[in-house]
C-alpha cells in the first residue's frame, strides 16, 4: 500500500477528517473527532490502528508485521507495517475499516446516528 491509497481510503469513510495534531510529520485520521489511524507521512512504513484487545494479541501472534502500538496504549492499538510482514493490502484495508468501526461504535448514539 502506498500513502495515497491509505489517504484516499481513510478519507472515503464517513465523517473522517485528516489532521496533523502531533506535528507536520504525523498524519492523523479521525472520525467525528476521535482518532482511528495515524502514520508518519514521510516514511509511511507503518500505521497505528485501533484494535479490539483480544484480536490485537491474536494478530500480533499471527503476523510478523503487527506489533503493539508504537507510542500508543498497547492494549488497544497495533502498529502494522505497510509493506511485507505477511500483510496484504486487502488485510490492511480491512484493519483500517475495523479501526474506524471500533471508534464509531464508541461514539454517543446521537453522534453515530448523524453519520
Brief digest:
The chain is α+β, with helices and mostly antiparallel strands. The protein has 4 helices and 6 strands.
Structural key phrases:
115 residues; alpha+beta; Aspartate Aminotransferase, domain 1; six-stranded antiparallel β-sheet; 4 helices; globular; DNA-binding
Can you describe this structure?
This protein has 115 residues and is an alpha+beta fold. It has a single domain (3-107), classed as Aspartate Aminotransferase, domain 1 (Alpha-Beta Complex). Helix content is 38%, strand content 26%. It has helices at residues 3-12, 53-62, 89-106, 109-114, and strands at residues 16-19, 26-31, 34-40, 46-50, 66-68, 77-81. The chain has a 6-stranded antiparallel β-sheet, covered by helices on one side. Strand 2 (26-31) and strand 3 (34-40) form a beta hairpin. The longest helix has 18 residues, at 89-106. The chain is globular, with a radius of gyration of 13 Å. The model has no long low-confidence stretch (mean pLDDT 94).
CATH class: Alpha Beta
Strand content: 25-35%
Helix and strand pattern = HEEEEHEEHH
Can you give the mean pLDDT?
A: 94
3D shape: globular
Count of helical stretches: 4
**Helical proportion?**
25-40%
Distance separating the two termini: 27 Å
Give the tally of structural domains. 1
What is the gyration radius calculated from CA atoms? 13 Å
Strand order of the largest sheet: 1-2-3-4-6-5
Classify the fold: give the CATH topology: Aspartate Aminotransferase, domain 1
| Helix/strand structural class | alpha+beta
**Which second-level CATH architecture applies?**
Alpha-Beta Complex
Instruction: Give unreliable regions as ranges.
Output: none
Q: How many beta strands in the DSSP annotation?
A: 6
